[in-house]
Structures are given as C-alpha cells and as structure tokens.
Amino acid sequence: MIRVVSDVQRGDKRLTPGQRLVVLLYGSVKQDANGTVSMQGTELASMLGMTQPAFSRVRKELVELGWLEVSGQVGHYNMYRLSDKANQLIEDQQHGVVPHLRVVGS
C-alpha cells in the first residue's frame, strides 16, 4: 500500500487541514481493485479523531472540490475513492513533479 504524506500538510492550498487529512487517509487505507474504500465513515472518522458529522461534511466538500468521488453504494451508504485528480497528484509525486510530498510504503 502507498501512503502520501505531506511534509507540513501543505498540498493544495485550497484545501483545509481537515480536508488534506481526509485525502491522505483515503490514500492510505485498504482499497479494492478500483480504489474504492469500503470502510464506514464512522470508522474513518475515528482514525482521524474527528466526529462522524465533521468527517461527513469534509468528505462532501472533497467530493464537490473533485478530490473524492462516489464509486458505489451498499444499501443507502455511499462508498468513495480518490478521484483522478488526487491520483494524478500521487502519480506526479512518484515522478518527482510534486517535490513537497513524499511517498512512503507501509
């Protein structure tokens, strides 16, 4: 698994620190073959020390900004994955285009 870690969480300046943390979390937790994270928001929120409502609000903002996308649904729960925009940032980092991020394996 690849995790993207920002030296000082400086990524995209349009993102708040909470938004950056959620993007980094989605890049570091277990994903299926198409990048979908099947963990529930409550579990993801607790990993970041956020309340579930705050996590859901940030995740919705990231969908609106194009960093996350809905990739499926189980019952009435949406499942999310990093968007092409976020994945491109990871790919650019791997090729040295984004020097303020580093990729570390886990």
Set down the secondary structure blueprint.
Blueprint: E1 2-6, H1 17-28, E2 36-37, H2 41-48, H3 52-65, E3 68-74, E4 77-82, H4 84-94, E5 101-105
Helix pairs in contact: 1-3, 2-3
Notable features of this structure?
106 residues, alpha+beta, Arc Repressor Mutant, subunit A, two-stranded antiparallel sheet, disordered N terminus
Can you give the mean pLDDT? Answer: 80
Strand order of the largest sheet: 2-4-3
User: What is the molecular shape?
Assistant: globular
Number of domains: 1
Strand content: 15-25%
The gyration radius over C-alpha positions equals 13 Å
CATH superfamily: Winged helix-like DNA-binding domain superfamily/Winged helix DNA-binding domain
Q: Determine the structural class based on helices, strands and strand pairing.
A: alpha+beta
Main sheet makeup:
3 strands, antiparallel
CATH class wording: Mainly Alpha
Number of helices: 4
CATH fold-level topology: Arc Repressor Mutant, subunit A
Q: Assign the CATH architecture.
A: Orthogonal Bundle
Question: Percent of residues in helical segments?
Answer: 40-55%
Number of strands: 5
Structure, described:
It is a single chain. By secondary structure, the protein is of the alpha+beta class. The protein has one domain: Arc Repressor Mutant, subunit A. Helix content is 42%, strand content 24%. The chain contains four helices and five strands, in the order βαβααββαβ. The protein has helices at residues 17-28, 41-48, 52-65, 84-94; strands at residues 2-6, 36-37, 68-74, 77-82, 101-105. The strands form two sheets. A three-stranded antiparallel β-sheet has the order 2-4-3. A hairpin with a 2-residue loop joins strand 3 (68-74) and strand 4 (77-82). It is globular. Mean pLDDT is 80; it is low at 1-11.
